[in-house]
Amino acid sequence: MKLLYIVNTRHDQEAYRVYAKVHMEGRATPITKAVSAIIGLLITAGGVLAVIRQGPKALYLITILVGALCVFSQPLGLWRMKRRLVKSAQDIQMHIDYRFGEESFSVTYPGQNEQISYGDLKRIVETPNYYFVYTDVRMAHILSKAHFTQGDAASFGQFLTEKSGVPVFFMNV
Question: pTM for the whole thing?
Protein backbone atom coordinates (compact mmCIF):
# COMPACT_ATOMS: atom_id res chain seq x y z
CA MET A 1 0.00 0.00 0.00
CA LYS A 2 1.43 3.34 -1.07
CA LEU A 3 1.24 5.76 1.87
CA LEU A 4 0.12 9.25 0.95
CA TYR A 5 -0.24 10.77 4.42
CA ILE A 6 1.17 9.79 7.80
CA VAL A 7 0.10 11.44 11.03
CA ASN A 8 1.78 10.53 14.31
CA THR A 9 -0.35 12.39 16.80
CA ARG A 10 -1.35 12.42 20.41
CA HIS A 11 -4.63 13.32 22.01
CA ASP A 12 -4.10 15.88 24.74
CA GLN A 13 -6.44 18.11 26.67
CA GLU A 14 -6.35 20.87 24.01
CA ALA A 15 -7.29 18.39 21.28
CA TYR A 16 -10.26 17.19 23.33
CA ARG A 17 -11.31 20.76 24.17
CA VAL A 18 -11.52 21.63 20.45
CA TYR A 19 -13.14 18.27 19.69
CA ALA A 20 -15.83 18.97 22.29
CA LYS A 21 -16.66 22.30 20.62
CA VAL A 22 -16.74 20.75 17.14
CA HIS A 23 -18.75 17.77 18.32
CA MET A 24 -21.31 19.89 20.15
CA GLU A 25 -21.79 22.23 17.20
CA GLY A 26 -22.35 19.23 14.97
CA ARG A 27 -24.96 17.79 17.33
CA ALA A 28 -26.82 21.09 17.76
CA THR A 29 -29.34 21.09 14.94
CA PRO A 30 -31.79 23.92 14.21
CA ILE A 31 -34.54 21.79 15.76
CA THR A 32 -32.67 21.20 19.04
CA LYS A 33 -31.75 24.87 19.21
CA ALA A 34 -35.40 25.89 18.64
CA VAL A 35 -36.71 23.39 21.22
CA SER A 36 -34.21 24.62 23.81
CA ALA A 37 -35.15 28.24 23.10
CA ILE A 38 -38.88 27.50 23.42
CA ILE A 39 -38.40 25.54 26.66
CA GLY A 40 -36.17 28.32 27.98
CA LEU A 41 -38.78 30.95 27.15
CA LEU A 42 -41.53 28.92 28.86
CA ILE A 43 -39.41 28.44 31.99
CA THR A 44 -38.49 32.14 32.05
CA ALA A 45 -42.12 33.18 31.52
CA GLY A 46 -43.24 30.89 34.36
CA GLY A 47 -40.65 32.43 36.67
CA VAL A 48 -41.64 35.97 35.72
CA LEU A 49 -45.35 35.20 36.27
CA ALA A 50 -44.56 33.70 39.68
CA VAL A 51 -42.55 36.80 40.67
CA ILE A 52 -45.39 39.08 39.53
CA ARG A 53 -48.05 37.10 41.40
CA GLN A 54 -46.18 36.12 44.57
CA GLY A 55 -43.24 38.51 44.80
CA PRO A 56 -39.50 37.94 44.27
CA LYS A 57 -38.59 34.70 46.00
CA ALA A 58 -35.31 32.85 45.51
CA LEU A 59 -36.93 29.87 43.76
CA TYR A 60 -38.70 32.08 41.22
CA LEU A 61 -35.57 34.11 40.52
CA ILE A 62 -33.58 30.89 40.01
CA THR A 63 -36.30 29.70 37.63
CA ILE A 64 -35.87 32.88 35.56
CA LEU A 65 -32.09 32.38 35.50
CA VAL A 66 -32.38 28.72 34.40
CA GLY A 67 -34.83 29.69 31.66
CA ALA A 68 -32.49 32.42 30.39
CA LEU A 69 -29.58 29.96 30.35
CA CYS A 70 -31.65 27.54 28.25
CA VAL A 71 -32.45 30.30 25.77
CA PHE A 72 -28.87 31.55 25.36
CA SER A 73 -26.74 28.42 25.79
CA GLN A 74 -26.17 25.08 24.05
CA PRO A 75 -29.25 22.93 23.50
CA LEU A 76 -30.36 21.06 26.60
CA GLY A 77 -28.06 18.18 27.47
CA LEU A 78 -25.22 19.14 25.15
CA TRP A 79 -23.41 21.37 27.65
CA ARG A 80 -23.13 18.40 30.04
CA MET A 81 -21.73 16.24 27.24
CA LYS A 82 -19.12 18.88 26.41
CA ARG A 83 -18.03 19.05 30.05
CA ARG A 84 -17.74 15.24 30.25
CA LEU A 85 -15.63 15.08 27.05
CA VAL A 86 -13.14 17.66 28.31
CA LYS A 87 -13.02 16.15 31.80
CA SER A 88 -12.38 12.64 30.45
CA ALA A 89 -9.29 13.92 28.61
CA GLN A 90 -7.57 15.44 31.63
CA ASP A 91 -5.00 12.67 32.05
CA ILE A 92 -5.05 11.19 28.55
CA GLN A 93 -1.89 11.51 26.46
CA MET A 94 -2.65 8.76 23.92
CA HIS A 95 -0.26 8.44 20.96
CA ILE A 96 -1.89 7.30 17.73
CA ASP A 97 -0.36 6.51 14.34
CA TYR A 98 -2.48 7.13 11.21
CA ARG A 99 -1.40 5.91 7.77
CA PHE A 100 -3.49 6.98 4.78
CA GLY A 101 -3.23 5.01 1.54
CA GLU A 102 -5.14 4.86 -1.74
CA GLU A 103 -8.12 2.76 -0.61
CA SER A 104 -8.18 2.99 3.18
CA PHE A 105 -6.30 4.16 6.25
CA SER A 106 -4.94 2.39 9.29
CA VAL A 107 -5.09 3.53 12.87
CA THR A 108 -2.64 2.15 15.40
CA TYR A 109 -3.51 2.70 19.05
CA PRO A 110 -1.42 1.34 21.90
CA GLY A 111 -1.93 -2.41 21.52
CA GLN A 112 -4.45 -2.21 18.63
CA ASN A 113 -4.55 -1.76 14.87
CA GLU A 114 -7.64 -0.95 12.81
CA GLN A 115 -8.17 -0.62 9.03
CA ILE A 116 -10.87 1.85 7.91
CA SER A 117 -12.29 2.30 4.41
CA TYR A 118 -12.81 5.85 3.16
CA GLY A 119 -16.40 4.83 2.39
CA ASP A 120 -16.98 4.54 6.15
CA LEU A 121 -16.41 8.27 6.72
CA LYS A 122 -19.53 10.14 7.86
CA ARG A 123 -18.29 13.68 8.47
CA ILE A 124 -15.04 15.64 8.14
CA VAL A 125 -14.44 18.85 10.07
CA GLU A 126 -11.39 21.07 9.71
CA THR A 127 -10.34 23.69 12.24
CA PRO A 128 -7.25 25.90 12.13
CA ASN A 129 -5.22 23.23 14.00
CA TYR A 130 -7.04 19.91 13.58
CA TYR A 131 -8.97 17.57 11.32
CA PHE A 132 -11.82 15.60 12.89
CA VAL A 133 -12.60 12.52 10.80
CA TYR A 134 -15.90 10.95 11.87
CA THR A 135 -16.52 7.26 11.25
CA ASP A 136 -19.58 7.38 13.50
CA VAL A 137 -21.84 10.20 14.66
CA ARG A 138 -20.42 9.82 18.16
CA MET A 139 -16.71 9.35 17.45
CA ALA A 140 -14.08 11.20 15.45
CA HIS A 141 -10.41 10.61 14.84
CA ILE A 142 -8.51 13.72 15.93
CA LEU A 143 -5.62 14.62 13.64
CA SER A 144 -3.37 17.51 14.62
CA LYS A 145 -2.14 19.43 11.57
CA ALA A 146 1.18 19.95 13.35
CA HIS A 147 1.77 16.19 13.51
CA PHE A 148 1.73 15.33 9.78
CA THR A 149 5.02 13.53 9.10
CA GLN A 150 4.24 12.73 5.45
CA GLY A 151 1.97 14.70 3.16
CA ASP A 152 0.74 18.26 3.41
CA ALA A 153 -1.91 19.05 6.03
CA ALA A 154 -3.29 21.83 3.82
CA SER A 155 -4.22 19.38 1.04
CA PHE A 156 -5.43 16.61 3.35
CA GLY A 157 -9.07 17.74 3.45
CA GLN A 158 -9.33 17.72 -0.33
CA PHE A 159 -7.74 14.25 -0.39
CA LEU A 160 -10.32 12.90 2.08
CA THR A 161 -13.19 14.45 0.13
CA GLU A 162 -11.97 12.86 -3.11
CA LYS A 163 -11.62 9.45 -1.48
CA SER A 164 -14.82 9.46 0.58
CA GLY A 165 -17.21 11.81 -1.22
CA VAL A 166 -17.76 13.59 2.11
CA PRO A 167 -17.20 17.38 2.00
CA VAL A 168 -14.96 19.03 4.56
CA PHE A 169 -16.75 21.47 6.83
CA PHE A 170 -14.50 24.24 8.21
CA MET A 171 -15.06 25.61 11.73
CA ASN A 172 -13.00 28.46 13.13
CA VAL A 173 -12.70 27.06 16.66
Answer: 0.69
